[in-house]
Design a protein that fits this description.
The structure holds two protein chains of two kinds.
Chain A: H1 3-25, H2 28-49, H3 55-73, H4 79-87, H5 102-110, H6 117-127, H7 133-140, H8 144-160, H9 173-193, H10 203-219, H11 224-237, H12 240-243, H13 263-277, H14 284-297, H15 306-319, H16 323-337, H17 339-348, H18 355-367, H19 371-384, H20 388-401
Chain B: E1 3-11, H1 18-38, E2 41-46, E3 54-59, E4 62-67, E5 75-84, H2 88-102, E6 106-110
Antiparallel strand pairs in B: 1-5, 1-6, 2-5, 3-4
Classes of the chains: A mainly alpha, B alpha+beta.
């Protein structure tokens, strides 16, 4: 086994090991130290002695022993943790809840509503994804010190305010699940677009989001929205090979070479979507996945079933009446009922100085032949666009229209 | 069991008229009683207007007394409840009931130790 194999194991097993150790030690900081210690030992031993039959089990046992040793040495540091670590054994029966997996407990701790959304994202990527602080900082294009501070603050709040390490009860799950799904979805959209500035799509972040989505689907297979989110992520990520031109410029959906779409991911996404829709409990992610599936079924942009997309957008708007959904629905209205009707809708949407609203208006005005107004809207879109990729898309859209 | 402060944040200025206050106080009383029944209640009380506050500062070996609240801000602590519960989720549940009863923001903050 090489060093890379240990690093792969780290990426794969870090979340599980930290989650078990958090339960055993009752402290996230101690758990992380212990697991990192164990991987350091693995780096020394595995290449020499071979990989143990159960790498995850080995890491967890080693981390637990290391933590107990450390706590014995520093007995004054905190008696309670030492006692907890010595009393509990990982084979003990676990507390009852809808699902009893340590990682699931940790997901709900990381995505607790008492933590700021950006702290939820950073903690989830760090503790469950095993990403380092520099990796998270790089992914979100924020300074390392900012991410480090967010993580330190969040961990301190979890400890001091006693944010529980527990899967919410069935009764509380509907309130708590959306935050978890939002964190994973945010990681995906960041992977596709980037939030600010240069950089463009980041495949590693998309892959991480899908990995987290698969984990959630494995842990909560009965929650249709969990499956819906995974379906949505697979159906959108399948387009990744077509989303960027060879020269690096982004390609909008209507211009993409659909033969480049990943057929295996599309099939998996469609199958998941069928499974969750059968439950008859639709939600925003299932509906967005349905829209993505309609696009996936069209061999070309011109063959898109806009009637069906508009029907799904009607349902989505009823469920989540946000300006962004209303704007996306207006795009479908333009295809079904023409740009004039769509423009009326867009002008009534209260989305402020939002680049997407300006871009949609520019497109509709162009199609209506109102070029002077279209140019103004186009300039507004360029002025407010947050990323280079968005600006490139706008310039490309205008170029095509000419 | 950890202890939490549930601080009721009140806009500065004159109090609401009695006809508005009365139903609110009834609601708050009901939440208070529910806390006692659940065995989580430690203390609760409403505060007089911030203008009744006095600030003390140690200076040059003595203590200087000044009239008024520590800081003139738009919102002040108007009342507080202290509960002894299992974790933040339980504290947030009680805090939420208090916020609904008072129609005011409630700040939930853990005590040390």
């Amino acid at each position: 086994m090489s060093r890379t194999d240990v690093e792969d194991a780290f990426r794969r097993e870090y979340g599980r090991a930290v989650a078990v150790l958090v339960r055993v030690l009752g402290d996230i900081g101690l758990a992380e130290e212990a697991v990192q210690d164990a991987f350091t030992v693995a780096l020394e031993r595995w290449p020499r002695e071979g990989t143990p039959p159960s790498p995850a089990g080995w890491i967890i046992t080693t981390a637990r022993n290391r933590a107990v040793d450390r706590l014995r040495r520093e007995a004054t540091r905190d008696r309670r943790h030492a006692e907890a670590a010595l009393l509990h054994s990982p084979s003990e029966p676990e507390e009852v809840g809808p699902v009893t997996d340590d990682r699931l407990r940790l997901v709900f701790t990381c995505c607790h509503p008492a933590l700021a959304p950006e702290a939820q994202v950073a903690l989830t990527l760090r503790l469950l994804g095993g990403l380092t602080t520099p990796e998270i900082a790089h992914a979100f294009l924020v300074p390392e010190a900012t991410v480090a501070q967010r993580i330190v603050r969040a961990k301190a709040k979890i400890r001091d305010a006693r944010i529980p390490y527990r899967v919410p009860s069935d009764a509380d799950l509907p309130d708590r699940l959306p935050a978890v799904l939002a964190v994973v979805h945010l990681v995906l959209t960041e992977g596709h677009h980037g939030s600010t500035g240069a950089g463009g799509p980041r495949a590693d972040l998309s892959a991480e989001a899908i990995r987290l989505g698969r984990l959630l689907a494995e842990l909560m297979p009965d929650e249709p929205e969990v499956l819906g989110l995974l379906a949505l992520m697979l159906l959108t990520d399948a387009r990744r090979p077509a989303r960027t031109a060879p020269d690096g410029t982004p390609v909008p959906l209507d211009q993409q070479d659909r033969s480049l779409w990943d057929g295996a991911l599309l099939d998996e996404g469609r199958a998941l979507l069928r499974t969750c829709l059968r439950r008859g409990r639709p939600g925003p992610y299932q509906l967005q996945a349905t829209i993505a599936a309609v696009h996936a079924d069209a061999r070309a942009w011109s063959e898109t079933d806009w009637q069906q997309i508009l029907r799904v957008y009607d349902d989505l708007l009823a469920l989540t009446p946000t300006p962004v959904v209303a704007l996306n629905r207006a795009v479908a209205v333009a295809e079904v009922a023409g740009p004039a009707r769509a423009l009326e809708l867009v002008d009534a949407i209260d989305l402020g100085d939002h680049p997407a609203r300006h871009a949609v208006r520019a497109d509709l005005l162009r199609r209506l032949g109102r070029s002077a107004e279209a140019e103004v809207a186009h300039a507004d879109a360029l002025r407010t666009a947050r990323t280079d990729a968005d600006r490139a898309l706008l310039v490309a859209a205008r170029g095509r229209a000419r | 069991m950890p202890t939490y402060l549930l601080g009721i944040i009140q806009p500065s200025g004159p109090a609401a008229p009695p006809e508005m206050l009365e139903p609110i106080m009834r609601e708050v009383g009901a939440v208070d009683q529910a806390m006692r029944d659940a065995g989580v209640w430690v203390f609760s009380g409403g505060l007089h207007d911030p203008s009744t506050a006095t600030v003390l500062r140690a200076r040059d070996g003595g203590v200087v007394v000044t009239d008024g609240p520590f800081a003139e801000v738009k919102e002040q602590l108007g009342g507080l409840t202290i509960v002894d519960v299992a974790d933040l989720d339980e504290a947030l549940t009680w805090g939420g009931r208090l916020a609904a009863a008072t129609t005011l923001p409630v700040e939930v903050r853990p005590f040390q130790g």
